[in-house]
Design goal:
298 residues, alpha/beta, Rossmann fold, Tumour Suppressor Smad4, 2 domains, six-stranded antiparallel sheet, 9 helices, 18 strands, 37% strand
Length: 298
């Protein structure tokens, strides 16, 4: 690895400072860096600013071997959306809160960068969902959400999979999630945790009117067709909490697994189950939280 792209989309000064420290470490190892004009201009150290090659996002793949995201999971999702058509693997330095995607702690930054330079990491593929509206293909690494717009009243969603009717769902909304997104919005609505290697998608109702409606796990070879009816005539489609599209009552949303994948950089000495214990405090025992399994496969 000889070239690294730096990414930060939140405007957090802490994230910028973290990117500067990282750049200094990479400079010492002879690793070249690139970032956008706006990110470089936000930095303080003139030597660092002069070292970084200024490029637009569209040029990152041509320059870099790895992209480092500084922020939280939202920043990672932004990076994933911009890099969806590339093979650029993404490493997440967590300058946010929980950090399931941005897994590397800012407190271990020196060790993390040393391991990156040495190639001590693994690259995994994460599945992506997609839909098409008005000729535009929209991707989601975490989830698609159908939700209310400008009203407190419930919406009705007719849900089909492979042309089979699942039901007419009256609720505040519906989440279609990947395994990666199962620990995000879906989890807070009672959805299951899905291991990233599971080849499935999950449909999770948001505050359904009927208590018998429960999350449903489907093979990711299935498509999901949604027809939405809102009292106001409009509802919202939200991809990864970032891309928002207005839906009219006559619109049909077809969601399926994309042929694209997002490549994520992960530690070699921990597994997804270590991550769950650490982030969700399973069996909240301090000693157990730091226990490392033997490279369990994701």
């Amino acid at each position: 690895m000889k070239n690294v792209a730096l990414f930060e989309s939140t405007g957090k000064q802490e994230a910028i400072a973290c990117a500067e420290i990282t750049t200094k470490k990479l400079m010492e190892s002879g690793i070249n860096c690139c970032a956008t004009e706006s990110m470089v201009d936000s930095m303080q150290d003139e030597k660092v600013k002069g070292y970084i090659k200024r490029l637009p996002y569209s040029e990152f793949e041509k320059f870099a071997d790895v992209l480092i995201s500084f922020g939280g999971d939202g920043t990672m999702l932004s990076a994933a959306r911009l890099m969806i058509k590339t093979d650029l693997p993404i490493m997440g330095i967590n300058v946010g809160k929980l950090g399931f995607l941005a897994e590397y702690s800012v407190n271990d930054l020196d060790v993390t960068i040393e391991k990156l330079v040495k190639g001590d990491y693994r690259i995994i593929d994460r599945a992506v969902l997609q839909t098409e509206l008005d000729g535009e293909v929209i991707y989601a690494l975490n989830d698609f959400v159908i939700e209310k717009k400008d009203s407190s009243r419930m919406i009705t969603i007719e849900a089909f999979t492979n042309k089979h009717l699942l039901g007419s769902i009256r609720a505040d909304g519906l989440i279609i999630t990947t395994p990666t997104g199962s620990t995000a919005y879906s989890l807070s609505c009672g959805g299951p945790i899905l291991t990233p290697s599971a080849e499935v998608i999950c449909i999770t109702p948001i505050s359904p009117h009927s208590l018998t409606l429960r999350p449903l796990v489907l093979p990711d070879t299935n498509n999901v067709e949604l027809r939405v009816f809102s009292p106001t005539g409009e509802s919202m489609l939200v991809a990864d909490g970032q891309v928002k599209k207005v839906l009219n009552n006559s619109d049909i949303v077809m969601i399926n697994k994309s042929e694209e994948y997002i490549k994520l950089i992960k530690p070699t000495d921990s597994s997804y189950y270590d991550l769950l214990r650490t982030k969700l405090l399973w069996a909240a025992n301090y000693g157990d939280m730091n226990f490392k399994n033997n490279k369990a496969e994701e």
